[in-house]
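Hey, why these numbers?
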Amino acid sequence: MSDFLRIERDDAVAIVTMNRPENRNALTDEDAIGELVAMCEAVNRDRSIRALVLTGAGPAFSAGGNLKQISQLGEGALGEPAQSRYFYRDGIQRVPLALCNLEVPTIAAVNGPAVGAGNDLACMCDIRIASEKATFAESFVKLGLIPGDGGAWLLQRALGASRACEMAFTGEAISAAQALEWGLVSRVVTAEELMPAALDLARRIASNPGDALRMTKRLMLESRHARLPDVLELSAALQALAHNTQAHRDALEVMLARLGAR
């Protein structure tokens, strides 16, 4: 492990901070990618974690690609073009697979600019809360590139096709206020309120039974692309598991006791 991520705990909430403000929390460095993937795997194994907040240290959420590294890639550092895909498959593309397979609900607390792969990283999270200082840009086209990290898939699911295309085709940044209007974020708060708001939401999520949260997230993810009959079948199977958890029995007992007291 290097020093890209700072990981803290607030009871059942994991607080993950990208901690390289000197390069605006760029994502394309190999150790940064490795830490993000390893963090997701560790959270999936730790059943005591029920929610996760992801944010960035310093003024930026994440500037996406490291421009110095990108300039070297354009000078033939990847070898033959047919081999270039392995740079992406074994590198940045591991991040969306890891984040989208993270079992617990995730909140991106976007504290500043989220650019390129940084914008897509925010879209990998289930919920996005933005500081008024945040901006969002699917900026690859400005560098003559395409979103090689899965942004074409992620952004359309967060925004819908038309607005996602507008961001991807212009490469222009949108403000936090516009992101709220478009539905890219759930809410916009002041910079000082960002982490308290994100943690309050994470704690309210984490107050629910962990197994039910993880199964609900899996069902939500699968429902994005599955047919209704398949979703219903998966729902029945997961509900059968949920009915047989102690957390369900305890919650039901509390609810019945409340009704009886009325």
Summary: DSSP finds twelve helices and nine strands in the chain. The first strand starts at residue 5 and ends at 10. The beta strands are 5-10, 13-18, 51-56, 106-110, 114-115, 127-131, 135-137, 174-175, 187-189.
